[in-house]
Specification:
Strand 13 and strand 14 form a beta hairpin. 20% of the residues lie in helices and 28% in strands. It has two domains: 156 residues, Trefoil (Acidic Fibroblast Growth Factor, subunit A) (Trefoil), CATH 2.80.10.50; 51 residues, no CATH class. It is built from five helices and 15 strands. It has 267 residues and is an alpha+beta fold. Its main location: nucleus. Belongs to the FRG1 family. This is (Perigord truffle) hypothetical protein. It is found in: Nucleus, Nucleolus.
């Protein structure tokens, strides 16, 4: 169920308890108890993303500066740098949106590692061939696809790559300290590094124990079925490592091409 966004300073609304009569006694219903327990367990506020799985649903794309900013857009689709509240100055660990214009809805594009970012008025963030950003298109084309690349600076810090292998960047223009966001940077540096913040209740929790381990396990037989060839120990280890690091399909394709049986005369 989609829940309303909560902004810094909003008062928390208390829900009335639902009750039902059972054998003449008024008791709190079991469904109400479950809802109350789930609500109390939900973490509040916004947190940094740590993995691609976290980049889902409402997010803010923030940048660390003397006065922290985030990528925002207005009603006509103009993309701009919007100041954002942060009690720690350049530290974005407390940054939260103060306006719906600062919030984007991230969605992974099926069959790829790329994402789209929908604005508050239903249009998608786009980067043209000149590096200009806008949010005016109602459908997703390659220019509305972005690849988040985890930066070495730490968890929650990402570079956003466009379809033309350029990167989104933040730069100061003019003497007044005005900030411009573009999508034509050739390499990743400090100006190309963003912190993706999401609602804490939407953060993917890491599973522990046998449940989490069972999901990550894959047998040699399953790997060989997917590869279509017999695998040696080194190939099995390489595929399992690639699976943990999120590049399984690329590694599997390399093995198929190099060792798979194929008819060289087929067209």
């Amino acid at each position: 169920m989609v829940k309303a966004l909560r902004f810094k300073g909003d008062k928390k609304v208390k829900k009335r308890k639902r009750t039902e009569v059972d054998n003449g006694n008024t008791e709190e219903s079991s469904s109400s108890k479950v809802a109350k327990q789930q609500e109390s367990e939900e973490p509040e506020g916004w947190v940094d993303s740590e993995s691609l799985e976290d980049i889902n649903g409402p997010i803010i794309l923030t940048f660390s500066a003397a006065r922290p900013i985030c990528i925002a857009c207005d009603a006509v689709g103009k993309v701009f740098a919007s100041p954002i509240d942060s009690t720690e100055g350049e530290d974005l660990s407390t940054a939260e949106p103060t306006d719906v214009k600062q919030v984007w809805v991230a969605t992974k594009i099926h069959g790829t590692e790329k994402y789209s970012f929908k604005s508050h008025h239903g249009r998608y963030l786009s980067c043209d061939k000149f590096g200009g950003l806008s949010a005016t298109r109602e459908a997703i084309s390659p220019e509305e696809e972005f690849l988040p690349v985890l930066n070495e600076l730490g968890s929650g810090r990402w570079a956003l790559q466009t379809v033309r292998d350029k990167f989104l960047s933040v730069d100061e223009v003019g003497a007044g300290g005005a900030t411009e966001i573009r999508g034509d940077a050739e390499a990743v540096g400090f100006k190309e590094t963003f912190v993706v913040r999401l609602q804490a209740r939407n953060k993917k929790r890491k599973k522990s124990g046998t449940e989490g381990k069972g999901k990550d396990k894959i047998t040699r037989k399953e790997l060989e079925e997917q590869a279509g060839v017999k695998l040696d120990d080194e190939q099995v280890k390489a595929l399992k490592r690639a699976r943990r690091e999120g590049r399984f399909h690329e590694a599997l394709l390399d093995i198929r091409v190099k060792f798979g049986k194929h008819d060289k005369f087929a067209y």
